[in-house]
Structure formats: structure tokens, C-alpha cells
Design goal:
The protein has ten helices and eight strands. By secondary structure, it is α/β, with parallel strands linked by helices. The protein folds into two domains: about 35 residues; about 290 residues, Rossmann fold, CATH 3.40.50.720.
Length: about 325
């Protein structure tokens, strides 16, 4: 009797596992057909000699490939991230593949406002300009927790931290006009549904809550891009983007079962490599045709549709005011 119960229990688990895989496969397949029928490629040949570019999270994944491409075009590239050892490996790789030795590392932990303020102070004292700021670093799928600043970890790393960093570097961007701010968001912003009053708080501990928390952070990135486009001088291009479905380690902290399913589907559906995922980022950094484009959302190196609420000017302003309050 007990063996039979165990048998049927295992059978049910197997059926559920198969159903989850099939449903996820179907959803991702629909996405690939609808949103990524062709992988966009940056076609600009623009050089960046004499320019200074800052890439957060430039030691791995999309950030590394973005830093590599900007360095290949002649820019001085600053990689801002945690972990000096991994950053050193990334710099060695970039120098070897581009021949550009003007690639540097500066420590930055977006989960700590004290680190962001120290980074900004050091950068502003070291460099006289900032031509391109790529807010790329992010995280997802982590166990909900508060930072030392008493802010939800994912919201701080993905949104509040970059918000503060950009604010502290704004004078350099203005002094370097025409300059650019690029914000890596996600198509998952469509699932975001934010409460401005509790924007910095943990929304829950379930897997579903983790998903919506990540989506909310990316929706905030979109609203932030809109606000910056209104508040900054016209010579500063600021836009957000979805890099596509990319094989990176951003979701490595998901439960092992879900991570294995996700990685399996990445292989089956031929998800983008980090280099392919960086194409829209690079496009917004260098393409002449987007220098005067502001507050837009891109995917596959083209303007794309976004959640309608992003155009709500009242919401844009309320989120901005809350962000200023949280980061002050």
C-alpha cells in the first residue's frame, strides 16, 4: 500500500514536471516567434576615441560584451562592479581581444548606498568627463531580503542604486554633452504593477513574488528613463531597452529545479549569447540616429512597444519623487 502511494506520488510529480516544461516551452516559443524572429545587430561603425564610458556589471555577461565593444571602438572604459578578481579577468580578456589598454576597474556595490557615493566621489575626482553611462548591472531570483539601507535587495540593485549613481554623475554627463545614458530594462516590465508607497519594501517570499519583484524593478527603470528624458538637457540621450532572452547567470540563484528547466529551454530555443544580447545596448551607446532620441524603449536595435502605464506622467513623477526620497 505504501509503495503504491509512493509510486503514484512520483508519477504525479513527473507529470507536473513535464507539464511545467511544456507550458514554459510553449510560452517561450511564442515569445521567440512574436518578439525575437530575428536577432538585432548594431550596424553603426561609430568610433569612440577620446570618449569615456562607464559600464556597471561590466565583468560578465551582457555588461562584459558591451564593455568589449566600446573598448574596440576606442573608448576608455570603466568597469564598475563587485569583485576585483573577476574584474581583472574581464579586463585582461577585453585588452587581449581589442588591443585597447584603456580599460579600468572601479569597485561598486549597488546594494550599498555608501559604496555608490564613494564610487561617484572617486569617479568625479578622477575623470573630467563621462560620455556614456550604461546602467547594466542587475539581479533576479534572489531570496528576498533587506539591504543595509533597509531597502528590498532586488529593487535597490536593479533600480534605486542605479538611480542614485546616475544622479551623482549627472554633472559629468552634462559637462560632456552630447552624452548618453542607457538603462537595461526587460520585457518583463509588462508584468510590473507597482505601489509607489511601498516601492522599497519586500513584496513577498514566494517564487511568484520574486518574479513580480523583478518585473517591478524593470518597470521602474522604464519610468525612470521617461523622467530623465524630461528633466535632463536635450543633448543627453536617455533610453531603456530589452536585451532579449540571453544565456547569462543573472538567475543562477533560482531554485535548482527551475534553473535546470530554464537552462534546458535556453538550449532548445537557441537563446542569445551575451554578445548577441549586448547589441541593442551598444546600438544605444553609439548609433548616430538615436543621439536625439529620448525616453524611448528599444528591442532588437529598434524602438519597441511598452506598457502603456509608462506614459502616465503623474506616475512618472510620483516614482521619481519617491526615489529621490529613498536615496536621499
Amino acid at each position: 500500500m505504501i509503495l503504491a502511494a509512493i509510486y503514484y506520488l512520483l508519477l504525479i510529480v513527473l507529470y507536473l514536471y513535464t507539464a511545467l516544461c511544456l507550458l514554459t516551452l510553449l510560452g517561450l516559443l511564442c515569445y521567440k516567434i512574436g518578439f525575437e524572429p530575428v536577432k538585432g545587430v548594431c550596424k553603426s561603425n561609430a568610433r569612440l576615441d577620446g570618449k569615456i564610458a562607464l559600464v556597471t556589471g561590466g565583468n560578465q555577461g551582457i555588461g562584459l560584451e558591451t564593455a568589449r565593444e566600446l573598448a574596440a571602438r576606442g573608448a576608455t572604459v570603466i568597469i564598475a562592479c563587485r569583485g576585483a578578481e573577476k574584474a581583472a579577468e574581464a579586463i585582461q580578456d577585453i585588452v587581449a581581444t581589442t588591443g585597447n589598454k584603456q580599460v579600468e576597474y572601479m569597485p561598486l556595490d549597488l546594494s550599498r548606498f555608501s559604496s555608490i557615493r564613494q564610487f561617484a566621489a572617486d569617479f568625479n575626482n578622477t575623470y573630467d568627463r563621462l560620455d556614456i553611462l550604461v546602467n547594466n548591472a542587475g539581479c533576479g531570483g534572489v531570496t528576498p531580503k533587506y539591504t543595509e539601507d533597509e531597502i528590498d535587495f532586488v529593487m535597490q540593485v536593479n533600480y534605486f542604486g542605479p538611480f542614485l549613481l546616475t544622479k551623482l554623475l549627472t554633472e559629468k554627463l552634462i559637462a560632456s554633452k552630447p552624452s548618453r545614458i542607457v538603462i537595461v530594462s526587460s520585457i518583463l516590465h509588462f508584468f510590473g504593477n507597482i505601489n509607489v508607497d511601498t516601492l522599497d519594501k519586500i513584496v513577498g517570499h514566494s517564487i511568484k513574488s520574486k518574479f513580480y519583484n523583478y518585473s517591478n524593478s524593470k518597470l521602474c527603470d522604464m519610468l525612470w528613463a521617461k523622467a530623465l528624458a524630461k528633466k535632463l538637457p536635450e543633448d543627453i540621450s536617455v533610453n531603456s531597452l530589452h536585451p532579449g532572452l540571453v544565456r547569462t547567470n543573472i538567475f543562477n540563484k533560482l531554485p535548482s529545479f527551475f534553473l535546470k528547466v530554464f537552462m534546458f529551454l535556453c538550449d532548445v530555443l537557441n537563446f542569445k549569447t551575451p554578445k548577441e544580447g549586448a547589441q541593442t545596448v551598444v546600438h544605444l551607446c553609439v548609433a548616430d540616429e538615436v543621439q536625439n532620441v529620448r525616453g524611448k524603449y528599444f528591442s532588437e536595435c529598434c524602438e519597441a512597444k511598452y506598457k502603456q502605464v509608462v506614459d502616465d506622467e503623474d506616475l512618472v513623477e510620483r516614482v521619481w519623487n519617491k526615489s529621490v526620497e529613498v536615496t536621499s
